[in-house]
Amino acid sequence: xxxxxxxxxxxxxxxFRESVRRFVAEEVTPNVHEWDMAGEIPRxxxxxxxxxxxxxxxxxxxxxxxxxRDALLRLVMLQELSMAGSGGFLAxxxxxxxxxxxxxxxxxxxxxxxxxxxCMTGDAISALAITxxxxxxxxxxxxxxxxxxxxxxxxxxxxxxxxxGMRADYLTVAVRTGGEGPAGISMLVIDGDSPGLSRTKLDxxxxxxxxxxxxxxxxxxxxxxxxxxxxxxxxxxxxxNFNAERIDMxxxxxxxxxxxxxxxxxxxxxxxxxxxxxxxxxVIRHKLVEMDRRINADQAWCELLxxxxxxGDDPVAExxxxxxxxxxxxxxxxxxxxxxxxxxxxLRGDTVExxxxxxxxxxxxxxxxxxxxxxxxxxxxx
Amino acid sequence: MKVAVCxxxxxxxxxxxxxxxxxxTLNRDDKLILDESDSFGVELALxxxxxxxxxxxxxxxMAPRSEVSGLRTALAMGADxxxxxxxDALAGTDALGTAKVLGAALGRVEPDLILAGVESSDGYxxxxxxxxxxxxxxxSVTFAKKIEASDGMLSIQRQTDDGYDExxxxxxxxxxxxxxxxxxxxxxxxxIMAAKKKPVDQVGIADxxxxxxxxxxxxxxxxxxxxxxxxxxxxxxxxxxxxxxxQRIADFLAELxxx
Lengths: 382, 259
Ligand SMILES: Cc1cc2nc3c(=O)[nH]c(=O)nc-3n(C[C@H](O)[C@H](O)[C@H](O)COP(=O)(O)OP(=O)(O)OC[C@H]3O[C@@H](n4cnc5c(N)ncnc54)[C@H](O)[C@@H]3O)c2cc1C
Ligand SMILES: Cc1cc2nc3c(=O)[nH]c(=O)nc-3n(C[C@H](O)[C@H](O)[C@H](O)COP(=O)(O)OP(=O)(O)OC[C@H]3O[C@@H](n4cnc5c(N)ncnc54)[C@H](O)[C@@H]3O)c2cc1C
Description:
The complex is a heterodimer.
Chain A: H1 11-28, H2 32-38, H3 44-52, H4 71-82, H5 87-106, H6 109-121, E1 126-129, E2 145-149, E3 152-163, E4 170-176, E5 185-191, E6 197-201, E7 212-223, E8 227-228, H7 234-270, E9 272-273, E10 276-277, H8 282-310, H9 316-341, H10 351-364, H11 369-379
Parallel strand pairs in A: 1-4
Antiparallel strand pairs in A: 2-3, 3-7, 4-5, 5-8, 6-7, 9-10
Chain B: E1 2-6, E2 9-11, E3 19-20, E4 25-26, E5 32-34, H1 36-52, E6 56-62, H2 69-77, E7 81-85, H3 95-109, E8 113-117, H4 128-136, E9 139-150, E10 153-159, E11 164-170, E12 173-177, H5 189-195, E13 200-203, H6 216-219, H7 245-255
Parallel strand pairs in B: 1-6, 1-8, 6-7, 7-13, 8-12, 9-12
Antiparallel strand pairs in B: 2-5, 3-4, 9-10, 10-11
Helix pairs in contact in B: 2-5, 3-4
Residues 127-131, 135-137, 161-163, 204, 207, 212, 361, 364-366, 368, 370-371, 374 of chain A line the site of one flavin-adenine dinucleotide.
């Protein structure tokens, strides 16, 4: 992101920003279109990302993590990664965060050594599986079951829309171990090579370089010690996870909006119509200012919320509101950038064309706009 | 194996630079960063020490205002420690003066091998490394693209227009490293945190036994007398192709004697 000057950032934030920025400029941005066409990001990229420390925020150092949680560092990192202008690249690489977070917080030492440690270095990939074919918003009603049988749970059911679902080595899965409602939900870590697990790939509008899958569990046996925490505590783990996922998605959306703005600005300065640069037409100038205004407002809000998270605050309602605001701004910026680029924005390979197709998933995934408003209203006691 | 790397800290090339009109030298008031030209030497040094199964990498830099930002980047890559020479008396030092200062600082480190860039990105006289070797009285090899060390000897592939020379030379020696010959590692989060605790020995010229009259504007025999804008390029000729375009291209290339 270009807003590097802010009272919140320390030297180490700036230094990490530089490192991630160099990685993105050298190894990511020039290749994102090719990866979209290939339908995946190269496996090697996980090793490079692991060596830089891209997976480590919030994980203990003995398993290869940073040994601390820093929402501002994470913001810096995510926004620099987002400047490549590819949500698919980001989703693929960062399924690790949503998949590993519950393990880092609630897993035993054994499961952390088995799953978290190899994911930190890029040797393994993790995914989170909550959403089911019957719905994603109403998490309390999931139907995939895990029944205890001797030392194993036996899992049956299916999950869909799972990011990195095809390539993940470990799946963090929401299952029903008890009765109806949130109190019956638990989290289980399932090995990707478990017999009875099958996966099919989904074709999508965007996020082309990120694989998305439907998973089928047919009497899959999972060692009971791969349960995270206690039975029946899964729902609160999911809710916990969502908070981080949502500010992450907001941070990405703001950066994607910035990419749209940058692309539109460069084009408006370059392209002439009716004897003048596009940027010299007032209508176009106002579009650019309107984009910039919304991006700056959300960026300031996002930095403040990240800072508050670091202070131990838990601004659930505001994070939900920010996700709505940032994804709507992204929708606006993608549209306006596309208008400014004209036909060029409709060509495959163009950055704005890609981002335009990635707007919806930002507004739906990780808690849709409607659900975010509902959550915020409940938090506000309405 | 003890390797020292000369690293220059320069104004960010992404920010348009300015010359001080009174001295014709580059304005260095903003934060300075690690010269990319030197990141290759840092990477090679780290690889050499890893290959040797032990040792250390010490950075040596001369920079104004006790600047350490660029050193931090190289320390975050994995270098062990640094010596920084910073002194008001150094303002205006020319390439030979720089070599004397760096030579004195390097003498205190007593390395087996000294690496430097072939040329810096801002001054790019491409003369400092060999002058350091001269000042220190040690062997110097230029344009290295590959370095191996064993039993006190270095085997170096020295880049040439047609390929490379194979050069061997005893240590201690100074070797300048061609840009782009290795992929410098990205500073990791852990490296960045560790770098904060790594020692940077800050010294002035008095600590190095150098007299103020030998360096700075006073000691420089090199002076930038004038700076003029490069000649603007003339607009090219636009040829409209009316079916004969290929012939014009062929004639043009023939005129250039390339076909
Ligand atoms: C590309 C992609 C990647 C994904 N990756 C993952 C992943 O890795 N892991 C995972 O578990 N899930 C993943 N998801 C799923 C995502 O989290 C869900 O799509 C999301 O939670 C919404 O669920 P749904 O699609 O089933 O919609 P539904 O829950 O069926 O909702 C449909 C629509 O109705 C609205 N709605 C629902 N309830 C209400 C209400 N009470 N009031 C008003 N409106 C309402 C919703 O906002 C939505 O617009 C991914 C989705 C996509 C598209
Ligand atoms: C008249 C004049 C005035 C100057 N005034 C100033 C000034 O006020 N402040 C200032 O900082 N510089 C100043 N410089 C530049 C400074 O002295 C340069 O470091 C020196 O001239 C080196 O030249 P170069 O950059 O062309 O090095 P090159 O020979 O092109 O560099 C090759 C390699 O030598 C090593 N090296 C070069 N310089 C350094 C260094 N400083 N520290 C560590 N390694 C190094 C690096 O490994 C580099 O890759 C001035 C130069 C001149 C000619």
